Amino acid sequence: MKTEVLIIGGGVIGASIAHQLAKYNLDIILVEKASDVCMGTSKANSAMIHSGFNIDGGTLKGKLALAANKVVKQLCQDLDVDLVKPLGSITVGFEESDLEKMKKTMENGIKNGIQGMRLLDQQELHEMEPHLNPEAKYGLFEPETGIINPFEYTVALAENAVINGAKVMLDTEVLDIMIENKTVKGVKTNKGNIEAKVIINAAGLYADKIAAMVEDIDFEIKPRKGQYFLYDKKWGNILTYTIYSAPTKVSKGMIVVPTIDGNILAGSNAEALEDKTDLRTTAEALDQIYTSTISHLFPELPRMGDVITTFTGLRAASSNEDFIIEAAKTVKGMINVAGIQSPGLTSAPAIAVMVEELVRAQNLELDFTPKANYEKGRKAPVMLAELSYDERNALIEKEPAYGEIICRCESISKGEINDAIHRPVPATNMDAIKRRVRAGMGRCQGGFCGPKVLDILSRELNISPLEVTQKGNASFVLAARNKELPLAEGDQKNEKIRI
Amino acid sequence: MKKLEYDLVVIGGGPAGLAAALEARKNGVKKILICERAPYLGGILQQCIHNGFGLQYFKEELTGPEYASRFIDAVEQSDIDVKLGTMVMEILEDKKIISVNREDGMFEIGTKALILAMGCRERTRGAITIPGSRPAGIMTAGTAQSYVNLEGLIPGKEVVILGSGDIGLIMARRLTLEGVNVKGVIELMPYSTGLIRNKVQCLDDFNIPLLLSHSIVEVHGKDRLEGVTIARVDQKLKPIHGTEQYISCDTLLLSVGLIPENELSSKLGCEIDTVTRGPVVNEKRITNIPWVFACGNVLHVHDLVDNVTQEAEIAGRAAADLINQAAAEVEKDVVIRHDQNIGYVVPQHIDALNNKEKTVKFFLRVKNPDEHVRLVVKDNFDQVLLNLKKTIVEPGTMVTFNLPRELVTKDTSSISISIAREQAE
């Protein structure tokens, strides 16, 4: 297989780069080792578009976040992606010292060009967020922060790239990079070799591993773990703005924020790790997050009960804490995009533009003339919940599957699930369906619709129910058919838990 | 949008909805519609292929589908309308119901009365926040039951079950009979939360260990579940360090409780009891909204379907009274209170002037197991109305008793129920 541009990684960064470069007459392949796009750091984070008020504008990540803020609205409009921006944030403080920090943050924000920030007195703070802990004293309001659904955003970027001719290869893991005469020639993958003129390493947590396939590198990606709580929509009205707790040295502060879908997301702590696959949640950390932040800010939010799920995100932090976006030093045709931790989701469109400049600077005989029939948009999938009753009826009349509700918690129809399986970037497993259409994302967490979604996947993909996975690879949902397993006979006893 | 008119709409075609509709029909309601979201009637009973149903109501032992079919047959022979594959999206205050299905699209149903019979759902892993990774192979016991009994598919080969709820116990036996190694059932509480008969018939008879006062402290595995770490818990239900034990398994089934499905009811404005998580009702199963009734597991989670049927019949009769304008207009509300040993009592209040039925049946659950207790019912004058002996009470089994109507007078304003250990004589 042969291409011009090979992008490694189907997170929001890889997808943004594919989307950006698909504007030109370039052959593009994006490879992703997971069974869907948006499966790593992009999937599990605070889902915010940071305005940059609390970021150091002198750093690369600061510059890119501020630049991206100027284009993200138009981009989301083009891609038919829900974005709530401006929504605004409030940083909440309890102590005198918090107020001092907030004043500094405000100065920083003003320096970064954020307009309309102001300090709130206790009364105004509680008028704006009546469910806040009554003991909260200080507030810093900032109007520009937004929220987005990172899955929807990443999928939209990748779909637009595919519509414009790029190819997305899922379940494709890069095993090595081929180099000749100090120039990259392509990659070896589990699906065979792919020749390429330029390789863009957007491998997230594994960007160091990929970069090191080409040359000795002077950076390392250390996963930093953050754990989150996701609350039922019935708590959706407990707050209006994105809420930061007063910042600490290592973090912009913990957050309690509304999600684009009307849930409440709260987290997260920061634990340095070695294991890049450690997505475990831990009781200690969850307890600590709940006690120190969630119940401290919003005492009404429960520890359990209306918690739909808890999850872990791994931030891909580089050794110097800034983004590393640069060409390889000793080999031509290799661009590394590494260390993309927060605000990576925000910065993605600006990162993609920067990568384009770096690719151009490689002078690789690539045709950068704009694509003649370029499509700047993408049609979002039909979401019945967003349509009027009459619009739904028109659809159901054409395709009755839109009248068959599969996921009762989120009211998702069979038609919407079928669509997700046949999109430009298809959903091919249970979690992929859940991320695309929210089937299984509600209160029952797939308890009722799981077997139905599995059945639809098996039929539409023409595979056995036993081949359907939760999230790709060997994550099979089921193990056998009835009457297939041998029964224990006679003295042959199965091992049980010892009491 | 298509518009239909009925006298009575029943949401849910499970045991509660079927019995309520039939009873309303028997009591003279002519135009009845059952909306069922599944493509078949019978609800969860259709996946409960084990026996043990109907001992009280039919005085014989039936399987779930057999029990359901008695009511389904009766509905099919009646002029009750049924819409299958039909999801109710919204209930409006002006007695209109918005539903959707493949044939009618989104459509509106006008009604005089509504019976809520949507049943319940299982509590999930998220709701109890088990720490650890997120591999495949973790599902609720009811989901596993649906795979095995409706689809003929087995979720895994080595199973650990968390929670001694009835569905988990039933599935321990069902999967063992399919050749699955069910390694054990882990229960957080110091007692089994399911029916005693299920512990005996589903675990003891198959040598499946039940570990009381244990919890899962971590799940392991990246793609598919590889094992769980369990630990003993102390009296505050916190894991005790040093008691951890790793159990390899590819499947974890959760049987950690059921929650009435009241999203539609809440949105409509039904007052919800924080303990039962079902609507607050009086003895006629009327919610705080006068044309809305609730029965079955949407009201409170029952132990036996026989009790669901009886309760649904009460709601069906009461809805018929409302529609036939036979309901008494003057009402005198009597509040039902209970002591700390009792988790909840249904109904939460009764009408002192309702003399339609000779007795009022109460359903309650105790918080903790106990033996040789007295159930005492008093009115607001401290007059003992009932004093009943109960040999064994436990949270998994509902306690029921009948209060004769004649004991409730027009002066009664509250009734209190207590359960306490019998005093040694």
TrEMBL record, chain A:
Its EC number is 1.1.3.15. One of its GO terms (molecular function) is (S)-2-hydroxy-acid oxidase activity. It holds the Pfam family Fer2_BFD. The keyword Oxidoreductase applies. Residues 5-357 form the FAD dependent oxidoreductase domain. It is an enzyme of class 1 (oxidoreductase). This is L-2-hydroxyglutarate oxidase LhgO.
From TrEMBL, chain B:
One of its GO terms (molecular function) is oxidoreductase activity. Gene3D superfamilies: FAD/NAD(P)-binding domain. Pfam families: Pyr_redox_2. Residues 6-311 form the FAD/NAD(P)-binding domain. Keywords: Oxidoreductase. It is an enzyme of class 1 (oxidoreductase). Its EC number is 1.6.99.3. InterPro entries: FAD/NAD-bd_sf (IPR036188), FAD/NAD-binding_dom (IPR023753), Metab_Enz_Cyan_OpOx_G3PDH (IPR051691). The keyword Oxidoreductase applies. PANTHER family: ANAEROBIC GLYCEROL-3-PHOSPHATE DEHYDROGENASE SUBUNIT B (PTHR42949:SF3). This is NADH dehydrogenase. It comes from Acetobacterium wieringae. The gene is ahpF_3.
